[in-house]
Design a protein that fits this description.
The protein is of the alpha/beta class. The protein has a single domain, classed as Alpha-Beta Barrel (TIM Barrel). The strands form 3 sheets. A 7-stranded mixed β-sheet has the order 2-1-11-10-9-8-7, with helices on both faces. Strand 4 and strand 5 form a beta hairpin. The longest helix is centred in the middle third of the chain and has 26 residues. The radius of gyration is 20 Å and the shape is globular.
């Protein structure tokens, strides 16, 4: 069980995932991560923080990379799992790249406009000297210096385009704009789209000389560009508005990505599922029921709809979750299942992987 991967390990991961992306892998992907593993390293100067933005800007990137390295060393990646980490500056961090204020909360990150403006006054522009872009690059560079490609660094959470716009039109502002200023919503959606891709390609190019592939906050591996697309804002709008304001941009991004997934977050987004599944280039859907809702295995009708549309499925769970879902669907093909277990449970974890012919 390895923490850091060598060339042959990445070749195996690439081969397996490629078959899965193409729908040719008869078994499920199971990304099993063992946590709290013994580590033969001195403790770093900093504790690991899930939100990388929680580290003060005065803290050297090298110290953050040391904390990342220690955290990765405490994990073992077995089955189809691979060593990966990503710079987490909050969902929709592009808002901070183009002028919004990044504010760390207790357990999350918020983005607020520096000043309130009418939507007609808002213009999105690329900023080559943005402090957050440069901060992310500095941390990536420091981590890559340690790992030299033995760990894959995933894309930061760029966000969804209406989510980015909503950071500049908070509360009910953007909802009202859909009725009162639809042309400006569309103008800024496509402006955000162009900047989204500029930053995506900029970070991908920055990482690619060392990175063994592409990944994101959901650690699926891809040899071609991959991202977990989203629009959390759309839980508040009708299917008709989704088709008018959200779907065209999603379709365009799916066509540009080699492997595109969608983060379907909460029951409020279920009315948009049928429309999403019509996007030919969308490879799969990640269904997250949301806080306070029954867990993934209680939504067989959602997964059946996704599978019947010919799309892939990604989810998290425990040792029982996958068994239940496979029984409901009739097979495990097309599923990427992510699971964590304690290092002390490694015998159970290995038996689970053997059961599904992963090892």
């Amino acid at each position: 069980m390895k923490t850091f991967f060598e060339k042959q390990d990445w070749e195996r991961i690439n081969s397996t995932f490629q078959k899965w992306w193409e729908g040719k892998l008869e078994r499920p992907l199971i990304l099993m991560t063992l946590t709290d593993c013994p580590v033969n390293l001195p403790r770093p100067r900093l504790d690991f923080r899930h939100f990388t933005s929680f580290y003060e800007l005065t803290i050297p990137a090298e110290q953050i990379a040391e904390a990342w390295n220690y955290e990765i060393s405490r994990r073992k990646f077995i089955g189809d799992a691979f060593p990966t980490i990503w710079p987490n500056f909050g969902p929709g961090v592009i808002a901070a790249f183009i002028g919004a204020k990044l504010e760390n909360g207790k357990n999350t990150v918020w983005f607020h406009p520096e000043r309130k403006r009418e939507i007609s006054e808002i213009e999105f522009k690329y900023d080559s000297q943005n402090q957050w872009v440069n901060r992310i690059k500095d941390i990536i560079k420091a981590a890559q210096k340690i790992w030299q490609g033995t760990v894959l660094i995933g894309m930061t959470d760029l966000g969804g385009n209406l989510d980015i716009l909503s950071s500049f039109r908070p509360s009910e502002g953007l909802l009202l704009d859909l009725y009162d200023n639809p042309e400006h919503v569309k103008r800024l959606t496509w402006s955000a789209h162009e900047l989204w891709w500029k930053y995506y390609n900029e970070f991908a190019d920055f990482m690619s000389p060392v990175n063994p592939g592409y990944s994101a906050w959901t650690p699926l591996f891809s040899k071609t560009p991959y991202y977990m697309l989203q629009c959390d804002f759309c839980y508040m709008i009708s299917p008709e508005m989704f088709d008018e304001f959200v779907k065209p941009e999603l379709e365009a991004s799916c066509k540009k990505l080699g492997n595109a997934f969608y983060h379907l977050d909460g029951v409020g987004q279920l009315p948009h599922l049928d429309s999403l599944l019509q996007i030919k280039e969308l490879k799969g859907v990640q269904w997250v029921p949301g806080d306070g809702k029954p867990s993934c295995e209680h939504w067989p009708e959602v997964y059946k709809k996704i599978r019947n549309a010919g799309k892939l499925i990604q989810l998290w769970g425990n040792f029982e979750t996958l068994d239940i879902l496979v029984e409901q669907l009739g097979s495990a093909k097309g599923i990427a299942f992510m699971i964590s277990a304690k290092y002390s449970e490694q015998d159970k974890a290995i038996k689970f992987l053997e059961k599904y012919k992963v090892i």
